[in-house]
Amino acid sequence: MRSVELFAGAGGLGLGVSRAGFEPAAVLEWDRWACDTLAENKDWPIHRADVREFSYTKLRDIELVSGGPPANRFSMGGKHNAFLDRRDMFPEAIRAVRELRPRAFVFENVKGLTRATFANYLEYIRLQLRHPELLANDGEAWFGHLGRLERHETKGVHDGLHYNVILRLLNAANHGVPQKRERVFIVGFRSDLASNGISRRRHIPAKPCPGPRDPVATTGIATGWRARIGLRRRRRRVACPKPHRG
Questions:
Q1: What is the DSSP pairing of strand 182-190 with strand 104-110?
Q2: 197 in any annotated domain
Q3: Which of these ranges, 24-33, 52-61, 74-83, has the smallest mean pLDDT?
Q4: Whether residue 75 is found in the same domain as residue 150
Q5: In whole angstroms, how far apart are CA 228 and each of 173, 207, 216, 239?
Q6: Are residue 19 and residue 114 in the same domain, yes or no?
Q7: Distance CA 131, CA 149 (A)
């Protein structure tokens, strides 16, 4: 299965996609140091280029497009300019989907994208990914384009390229990673696929692997690193009571 990775950075998302069984046909990143890191560690077809100037014409039979568009304009610590920020790369992610017509796509971004301030723009992103061939007209403002997308969406009959899209806020700590890291994932499957749907099965976090001296290994009282830490703290309090005064 062939994939295209956009905004690769140091390759975190790309590594996960690769471990899932995809072979990168192109890995795009403009930062020199990130490209050097990728080249040092992975034998991938790395393109150090501005994604806005990259042509996908030579890429064929792409199953997946993935990437994390730069999050500066949505980050909790930024200026929150969203679509007014020239660094907004979601239009390029949508262009890649439109031109490559992958079977699926996965994009991730910061939690700040779900803020009420960006609600309309997040819906704009979702509808563009759902109907990537419905382009904005010359000189058309984004909210005007959003209105046309909404009218097209509510028609109920959709010709041409379109995707089934869901958005989900996930915390890495709930999926076996020892870090609280919340990210928005936007996942889409091309609507003409036989499966024509997205599994709603609830993800069950991976169970930790207790060591031989771990109280959880022998008692089975708790699972998860938070519970294990709490259990150890309670045992320390029992073993070392405060001295009695008076």
A1: antiparallel
A2: no
A3: 74-83
A4: yes
A5: 14, 12, 7, 16
A6: yes
A7: 8
If you search the block for the tokens 């009571």, which residue do you land on?
A: 241
Q: Are residues 68 and 179 in the same domain?
A: yes
| Pairing, β 23-29 against β 46-48 | parallel
pTM over 0.85: no
Domain that holds residue 228: 207-246
Question: Residue 12: which CATH number?
Answer: 3.40.50.150
Cβ within 8 Å of residue 147, ≥6 positions away: none
Q: Are residues 60 and 133 in the same domain?
A: yes
CA distance 104 to 18: 15
Is residue 200 a part of any domain in this protein? Answer: no
SS3 4: strand
pLDDT tens per residue, range 144-179: 999 999 999 998 888 889 999 999 999 999 988 899
For residue 214, the surrounding DSSP H or E stretch is none
DSSP state letter for 137: P
**pLDDT, tens digit (0-9, with 9 covering 90-100), for 182-192:** 999 999 999 99
Residue 111, domain member (yes or no): yes
Task: Give residues with Cβ within 8 angstroms of 14, minimum separation 6.
Answer: 5, 8, 24, 27, 38, 42, 44, 66
Residue 182 maps to a domain: yes
Strand segments, DSSP code E, in 100-173 are 104-110, 163-171
**Domain total for the chain?**
2
